[in-house]
Amino acid sequence: MTRIEVFQQALDGCRGLGQQFPDNPLLKSAQTQMQYLIDLEQGERDGGGCLSDINVGLIAVREIEGVDDDLADWICERVCPLVDEMRQETGNPAG
């Protein structure tokens, strides 16, 4: 599975939760972050300068876990390691 596919699956899950909880700003942030990661991987964003601001793992633990445990696990186990790889590749440490 490619990075984009992993990110897209997480984005789809976040969008579903966003429909259930439309007033939750952290779920909106998770969607924005996942879209940023997809855009970056597709070359539509330049340089990865915002990678240090990605905190989707924290959002998964605080907001998603307990509501959709599978999605929270997906983000923590699949998305976060890929974000760490991307940070290493770009020399952009976690914030």
What report would you give on this structure?
- The structure is a single chain.
- The protein has 95 residues and is mainly alpha-helical.
- It has one domain.
- The protein contains four helices and no strands.
- It has helices at 3-20, 25-41, 56-64, 69-90.
Features:
single chain; 95 residues; mainly alpha; 4 helices; 69% helix; 0% strand; globular
Report the helical percentage: 55-70%
Number of strands: 0
How far is the N terminus from the C terminus? Answer: 27 Å
Can you summarize the main beta sheet?
Answer: none
What is the average of the pLDDT values?
94
Structural class: mainly alpha
Using the CA coordinates, give the radius of gyration. 12 Å
Shape: globular
Strand coverage percent: under 5%
Task: Specify the number of helices.
Answer: 4
Q: How many separate domains make up the residues? A: 1
Low-confidence runs of at least 5 consecutive residues: none
The ordered string of helix (H) and strand (E) elements is HHHH
Précis, in short:
By secondary structure, this protein is mostly helical. The protein contains four helices and no strands. Helix 1 runs antiparallel to helix 2.
Secondary-structure blueprint:
Layout: H1 3-20, H2 25-41, H3 56-64, H4 69-90
